[in-house]
Amino acid sequence: MKTLPSTDVLIIGGGWTGLLMAKELGSRTPHSIVILERGGMRNPADYVLGMDELDYFIRLHMMQDPSRETVTVRHDANERSLPIRQFANFLPGSGVGGTGEHWGAQVPRFQPDCFQLYSRTVARYGEKRLPEDHSFQDFGVTYDEMEPYYAREERTLGVSGKAGNLRGKKIEGGNVHEGWRSEEYPNPPLKLPYFGSLMETAAKSLGYHPYPNPTAVNSQAYTNPDGVTRAACAYCGFCERLPCMIAAKAQPTNIFLPLVQKLKTVSLRTGTTVRRIVHDTAQGAGKARGVTYIDAAGEEVFQPADLVILASYTLSNNRLLMLSKAGEPYDPAAGKGTLGKNLTHQISFGTAQAFFEKPLNRFMGAGGAGMRFADLDGDVFDHSNLPFLRGGMFGAIMTGQAPIATFGALPRSIKARWGSAWKKAAMEYYDHVGVVAYSGEHVPYKSNYFDLDPIYKDSAGDPLLRMTINWRDNERKMVEFMTAKGVEVARAMGAKEINPFPGYQDYDVTRYQSTHIQGGTMMAPSPDRGVVNNYQQHWQIPNLFVLGASTFPNSASANPTPTILAFAYRTADAIVEKYLKKPGALA
Amino acid sequence: MRRRQFLVLSAASVGGVLVYSLDRRASRLFAQDKATQPLKIPLRFFTEDEALIVAAATSRIFPSDESGPGAREAGVVIYIDRQLAGPYGRDRYRYTHGPFDENAPRDFGYQGKATPSETYREGLQGLQGFDQLSPEEQDNRLRQIEDTHFFAVLRQNTIEGMFCDPAHGGNVDMIGWQLVGFPGPHMSNYNDVDKHYGEAYRPKLVSLEQVLGRKIPVSEDEDRT
Hints:
The complex is a heterodimer. Chain A has helices at about 15-30, 55-60, 115-125, 145-155, 195-205, 250-255, 255-260, 315-325, 405, 420-430, 475-490, 560-580; strands at about 1-5, 5-10, 35, 70-75, 80-85, 165, 170, 210, 220-225, 230, 265-270, 275-280, 290-295, 300-310, 340-345, 345-355, 370-375, 390-395, 435-440, 450-455, 465-470, 495-500, 515-520, 545. Chain A is α/β, with parallel strands linked by helices. Chain A has two domains: about 1-45 and about 85-160 and about 250-345 and about 515-585, FAD/NAD(P)-binding domain (3-Layer(bba) Sandwich), CATH 3.50.50.60; about 165-250 and about 345-440 and about 470-505, no CATH class. Chains A and B meet through helix 2, strand 5, helix 10 and strand 20 of A and helix 7, helix 8 and helix 9 of B.
């Protein structure tokens, strides 16, 4: 195997966190940096083609190619696993920018107590209320420590929204249940589509506190602190699952890539698939020496590096550490090891599919354009007499919808699925349907985890990652409770007919849920409890850092990207200010 | 090499219909235009017999009736023919390593081995002579297979062919979009997104090629030069 000239820093993955780290380290230090990205370069001039619903939204042009690598799923350790043959319930991206190119850009912060799930739950309800089989654990970092990093990522992305808690002062019209924020959002909220306006009125009538959904979509032209200027959103309605052609939606290729490309010390190599992180842990040294990867020409090479940053999606972060034997694999039966533990998948579903008399003009919208309320989020409300813990946020959001994906949404009273009666009804209801959405917390359990699949392999012959995951009473009861609340909201919005969500049975890989799979390489205060410390530094291999939601011990109700970016900034500061001055363990 | 097959549409049988030829030029056939020659559309995947069955079946799924035009006018069979001849038809982007399991629980998605093109070829074997049946007989025949994987794919592809951008060969004349009031790709709704509350706003329909003024690359042509 050919050995390439050594680099100071090697970054695996050219998405949100990889490009953020390259920009921070590349602009603040003289070190040489190599980024290895599995997919290709993106050309924003092609992004207008995202308006082709078939190739982009349906055939998933932006996503990871499952013919080369996918994951397998089973509901419990006694079940055989089956591969996800086509992505559906979550949609990992590919290429420079990764999943951040096609995201929905909804950017709420975590509720402060999400960082202390174990201790805050026990303090309020006692140990006896923790669910059976739980693996609750605190992040080891508090919201107060993270707040400046949240403010930084919001300024960088140009988030549009309205504050509801400025340094402890509650502000009507914003999210009065959010954690304190040091400053107002950099941009005012997006324009409000009709559907969101219906929810705003209805939620108020029910005593809730609706607020404009914070989004990383520009409500006006905006120049961020790095000098990057981006246009205002045009509400074209081609947003989620697609890249923004005018860069109004914050994407790694419009926020960080232009800055990274100007840095002479950074080299971005596309079409490169990392196979192993090479390290000396078995020899007791605890040092990464570099990575082996298959280059764009198909040749496997060794790239030595002094510092390795693993900045891929949750799935690849886990799999690469497992394939590289970097960390002790989690064994749920023995209760040993941590690598793969605390797999969570943010709960997300439509509580009520609501049919209205009046048309909604569903083709117009933007990622996250709409209203939310958080009165039933986290531990905002008392769970003493409820059969579940935690909660989530309701939303009425119009991202812009197209007909292949959404034709045929009908009240359940209509049974036809093809033929004249079906066609006529589906045409009549087409522009009259909206979903009262809910996203909720998925608490961690000992028997929801990742490991390597014993049977299914990728195109290079390496084992696929396996997810062992299922819903428990806490999720099923939360979903039932929230569905009833969502139906009330839909009714107050004036819906003529409502399909309530049928409820959670087993974890389902065919219904889109969210691309928010988390955990497996979680941060923890000590090596026996997690894979990385709270600087996202590997406990056994101090010159290896792991970025992304794989380091989160639990899923919040909030979409994870803002928190991922906040932690990446915190890690970048720690690397620049501490690690590079004196390489070694930071905790 | 198979002998080149064509779908022959006679003007009298289809009425006023717009179809896309291989180079995606639109042609309109008028029943009253006695001089019009039958239109021969070159097929990429189907045999002529198969194409006639698919055309008949998709127009029972999405009929042309008093509520408006359907799969026949939208050119759904042409759309499906092109999809099956392209990367979709051979599962270029599906994980296709075994073991497979045709009987896996539905919440794991389709776990069988067949590619869409294989699924069609086998499914159509079971529908021989379908295009010769009366509409009632056709509906009865489809009801017998409506729980099969083949039917699920056929139904999904019919919806795709009704509403895809016309560049893909279906939704001819944006006829599907007209049915539901979807205007196609509009670069900006900035001045309208927070207006028209409670009333239908229906801007002029446009296709992506009309917006851009050029042909767009489509996935079914990925491996065609």
